[in-house]
Amino acid sequence: MSKKKVKKLIDEKDIRHDGRKLDELRPTKIEVGVLSNADGSAYVEQGKNKILAAVYGPREVHPKHLALPDQTLIRCRYHMAPFSVQERKSPAPSRREKELSKVIREAFEPSVFTEYYPRTSIDIFIEVLQADGGTRCASITAASLALADAGIPLRDLISACAAGKVEGRLVLDLNDVEDKEGEADLPLAYMSNLNAITLLQMDGMLTNEEFEKAINLAVEGCKQIYQLQKVALRAKYVEVKEAIKEEAEEQ
Amino acid sequence: MPVFYDKRQLVTPGDLLAENDYYAGENTFKENGKIYAACVGLVNCEGRNVYVVALKSFYVSMVGDTVIGKVIEVSLSGWIIDIKAPYLAMLKASDVLERSFRPQRDDLPSMFDVGDLVIAKVVASDRTRGPLLTIREPGLGKITKGQITAITPTKIPRLIGKKGSMVTTIKKETGCQILIGQNGLILVSGKSPEDERLAIMAIRKIEQEAHTSGLTDRVAEMIRKEKSEKKEIGGKDV
User: Fold this and answer.
1) Among candidates A39, A154, A240 on the partner chain, residue whose Cβ is nearest the Cβ of B13
2) Is residue A174 situated within a structural domain?
3) Is residue A250 in some structural domain?
4) A173 found inside a domain
5) Test mutation, B72, B212, B213, B217, chain A, max A CBs within 10 A
6) Beta strands B89-92 and B132-134, pairing class
7) Under an 8 A CB cutoff, do B27 and A191 touch?
8) Portion 148-177 of A in contact with B at CB < 8 A
9) Residues B44-76 pLDDT 10s
10) Nearest CA to B192 among B139, B146, B236?
11) Would you call B164 helix, strand, or coil by DSSP?
């Protein structure tokens, strides 16, 4: 890869190479209910990340022997499109994608009332259309909205965001360059109302103090995303309501 | 209404609805004495019961519901029917025959085949087995004419309206027969496809605007407007 190496990721005024402050999220756009054939769906753009999530279920499990007698089976597929990265990615599921599918699934298990519909499955499909670091977090944000859009009872929406260490400084929501050049990356998924962490990973090195600070930073990021998620979920219904109000006023 | 929201306000999963002295109703849950919403919907309160009317859901079968389903498999002693619920429903051959089923004589596909649509009633439903259906009641059985449309099951009460006011309005204005399955499938059969199209359009409008008020009047107005427009175009053709 002949990607131009960015020499300095954070300048003297604490501005990152893409113009953000240290504790600033990438510009995020969220849309809910974008696919009509899935039971629930959501689309998230976080910086250059573009992610589509679809949910089916609860429905009959196929193959049948996988069904659990006392709870819903949650299945998740995280997949990157061949054109999502600079060099073509083979469409076959890689080791990394299988692992991410598993950790994402496990991040959702605490939020879904799995005991409500035994012998069924909820299938989550996540398609990364364009990747620029922190796709697992954006995927969780999208899939959680798709679950809510499918009408599946949830304890809380899950928001996810990474924090990390770049050039000795703690930063929020790392992108691809910062992730690769930086010293540490700490993705975190969080249920804001219940104050519970459902996914926590880390690579790189942080001191105990930095670790604690990074977690608090990521949690703050998640809370910001949570607000965006709520607005996106309501948007569809609020729009209809306002259109009618306007119509009534015209008459 | 309890502490945090007004009546009929839009809530999302995880929103704190009430504390302590309330009961957690439909689509809510209680944790450490606090009641949270579990679905996107409109919050409501009756007495001390706090519940959320979901804006989108899937069908959960209840005994006594009339449903519309599609035959997806002919099994050894009956049919397996998709009623758009998490579980597949079963219709037994003995129920259709009104006597015990004789495998050597009775030909199941000649009664219902894969792809047929049926109106049926749920007679048994628990979580250990899929729901059981019956067609041994007047008005139930195979669907032979009309069009099917689907809406999300929680909006069925809105489509029916107070004492059936909404559905009566559509029936009166379009002249169509409308049969509502509790699972969100609706059978519309009228004199002409045009009438049916109009009724389906009205149903779509109700689904989209279910959470707003004054809907019955707007639906009636929309149908009348569409009808008069059609007449004008028809008049020009003649």
Assistant:
1) A154
2) yes
3) no
4) yes
5) B212
6) parallel
7) no
8) 148-151, 153-157
9) 888 889 999 999 899 999 999 999 999 999 999
10) B146
11) helix
- Do A240 and B12 count as a contact with CB atoms less than 8 A apart? no
- The two tokens of residue A220 are 């703050």
Flag whether the ipTM exceeds 0.90.
Answer: no
Enumerate the H helices of chain A as residue ranges.
95-108, 135-149, 176-181, 208-250
CA A59 to chain centroid, in Å, comes to 24
Question: What is the assigned CATH class of domain B147-230?
Answer: alpha beta
Q: What is the pLDDT of residues A58-103, one digit of tens each?
A: 999 999 999 999 999 999 999 999 999 999 999 999 999 999 999 9
What CATH number is given to the structural domain containing A136?
3.30.230.70
Chain B residues with CB-CB distance to A238 below 8 A: 10
Quote the domain boundaries for residue A175.
28-235
Q: Is A190 within a domain?
A: yes
Chain A residues touching residue B131 (CB < 8 angstroms):
none
Domain count, chain A: 1
A101: left (phi over 0), alpha (psi -120 to 50) or beta: alpha
Q: Which of A113, A157, A240 sits opposite B12 (nearest CB)?
A: A157
- How far does the CA of residue B99 sit from the closest CA of chain A (Å)? 30
Architecture of the domain made up of B66-142: Beta Barrel (2.40)
Where are the domains positioned within chain B?
A: 10-54, 66-142, 147-230
Domain B10-54: give its CATH code. Answer: 2.40.50.100
Buried/exposed code over B23-41 (b: 16+ C-beta within 10 A; e: otherwise): ebbbbbbeeeebbbbbbbb
Q: Which residue of A has its CA nearest to B34?
A: A194
